[in-house]
């Protein structure tokens, strides 16, 4: 790190000791990189351990070398030598986080975000090294971005592309055979999987069958529709997104008791009454459904963060990172407006929030039951909607998993090892293990004590009357390429400042 760069970072985030580096160039993959003297939290749910040296050769982890802590204290063995190294003394190292439900966006409601740079750098700055894109602006465009990221041509996480079944030419599908043909076209277009929503049973059965034959995993955003979670189990789906389709499948007559004037296409109606859904589920039927999901290998990506505004609107509207990093186009999209999906807070009341708080209590209990039965829970943030910013939403998702009652070790596993399994990449990413791809984050602070230390830009903490500040992810290594977290955030702020100035 040059003196000039170190001073710039120090000015951006004072009161913090940066990890020392040697021979590391931001955005350039070294032939051999060692992250030295680290305490690691693996993605398999086991306790933290260290010190270790993590040796990276090219884009893979070559070795994880245990060190002698006594010798280190005496100034003896300093670990594995290398020309390029990051000193992680006093730091925690995690596998790169995986965002299993995200939307790559270059504009919101017709207003430009200045391309994909804003989205990509916010993901990386929050320690996210892989994203599963579920519903692209363009399948072809997303596949091209996936390739550019894989080749290291752009600053971006690893990308998996799951186009919407209904997007582009899928809107013309009317028969089971047309549904099969649609799946084959997505496969030919280079899709990694398929994202479903709002589909009739005969089309769903045919499309799922064809997806299985062509090797395309499925992700399903259920809604108030003909199909529900029982169909995902019956037809062999991979993951259920959010939670729709689960509690309504546990209502004895399989239909929520809506008022007579309910209109599903009115989003204020839709989300208001969604907040009353979980209380209508029969616990015995729900228990059977969760068992069936586990037996059928159906995983669950709940995206707890994306509905949180429904239970606490004021908190959602005043998140601290909005000050420096909220792009004005995204801010405008968040404002209540029936024209924008998820901008439904028109006449929202404390009564609505009370119902949603109860909704969360029952929903979180169902998640605990699902995992106790052996189910796999993943992490995604669905950001770009409902007051959630890219990247920051995933860290908030982790906090909400902790609120649901999961140990921090399990929470990290949900967002690393579990997500890798959901993506079918459990032998490639989500672990700190020799042979795995080199996706890692060096964190200033202990995420097992305080998940907030993972937020990009860090967090201020007062202990014993003294304020200290953590940096969040200091270094983010994606595919063996190191990126400096504070520098990524400075780039994001420059994009936001330029967009705000243009609006004056």
Plain-language structure description:
- By secondary structure, the protein is α/β, with parallel strands linked by helices.
- The protein has 2 domains: 3-95 and 430-503, Urease, subunit C, domain 1; 165-422, Alpha-Beta Barrel (TIM Barrel), CATH 3.20.20.
- It is built from 16 helices and 20 strands.
- Strands 1, 2, 3, 4, 5, 6, 16, 19 and 20 form a 9-stranded mixed sheet that branches.
- Strand 3 and strand 4 (60-66) form a beta hairpin.
- The longest helix has 23 residues, at 350-372.
- It is globular.
- The relative contact order is 0.17.
Notable traits:
504 residues, alpha/beta, Urease, subunit C, domain 1, TIM Barrel, nine-stranded mixed beta sheet, 16 helices, 20 strands, globular, disordered N terminus
How many angstroms separate the termini?
37 Å
Counting copies of identical and different chains, the oligomeric state is: single chain
Q: What do we call the CATH topology of the largest domain?
A: TIM Barrel
**What ranges have pLDDT less than 50 throughout 5 or more consecutive residues?**
1-16
Number of helices: 16
Strand content: 15-25%
Helix content: 25-40%
Q: What is the number of independent domains? A: 2
Mean pLDDT: 92
* CATH architecture identity of the largest domain: Alpha-Beta Barrel
What is Rg?
Answer: 23 Å
Q: Which helices and strands appear, and what pairs or packs with what?
A:
Layout: H1 3-12, E1 21-22, E2 32-40, E3 49-57, E4 60-66, H2 69-73, E5 84-87, E6 92-95, E7 97-102, E8 107-108, E9 111-112, H3 117-125, E10 128-134, H4 139-150, E11 158-162, H5 176-188, E12 194-197, H6 201-214, E13 218-221, H7 229-235, E14 239-241, H8 267-274, H9 283-295, E15 299-301, H10 313-317, H11 322-325, H12 328-334, H13 350-372, H14 392-403, H15 408-422, E16 440-444, E17 460-463, E18 466-469, E19 472-478, E20 481-484, H16 485-503
